[in-house]
Design brief:
- The chain is mainly alpha-helical.
- The protein has a domain at 2-86: Arc Repressor Mutant, subunit A.
- Helices cover 61% and strands 6% of the residues.
- The protein has five helices and two strands.
- Strands 1-2 form a two-stranded antiparallel ribbon.
- α1 crosses α4 (63-86).
- The longest helix has 26 residues, at 89-114.
- The two termini are 33 Å apart.
Length: 134
């Protein structure tokens, strides 16, 4: 799973440096180095630049790497579609109407994750918890 997440992250961030991918994936740099070495040996990733210092290298998916990501996304789409198809129509409508709020939430999470220092959670009138919509 870590390999697929790594490849997907690289697909979304072409020419990323290993350190950038480590931050995005919240992995130790040594873990990313291990993934890069394995993915390079497997022919899924190529390293450009960084001849003297591997930390300055940028990474790209090969066509084989792009194919793996595409297949994984397709499988995930099929699973999601099948699962959504099992839900009653009112549940599907509620999910659909919540998509804009979920996009805002993921954007906020990404923005906070990109900050160099952690942010203290904001307190709300209900003790800091988010109530589930009914």
């Amino acid at each position: 799973m870590a390999q697929l997440e790594f490849l997907s992250c690289l697909a979304e961030n072409p020419a990323a440096r290993p350190g950038q991918l480590a931050r995005l994936l919240r992995l130790a740099p040594s873990s990313v180095a291990t993934l890069v070495n394995g993915m390079t040996r497997a022919g899924l990733v190529v390293r450009a630049g960084g001849v003297d210092d591997r930390r300055t290298a940028t990474l790209q998916l090969t066509s084989a790497g792009e194919a793996v990501v595409g297949e994984w996304q397709e499988v995930n789409s099929l699973i999601l579609a099948a699962a959504l198809g099992t839900l009653p129509a009112p549940s599907r409508r509620r999910l659909n109407s919540s998509l804009p709020a979920l996009r805002e939430l993921t954007s906020a999470i990404d923005a906070i994750a990109d900050e160099p220092t952690p942010v203290a959670p904001a307190r709300h009138g209900n003790g800091g918890t988010v109530e589930a919509a009914g």
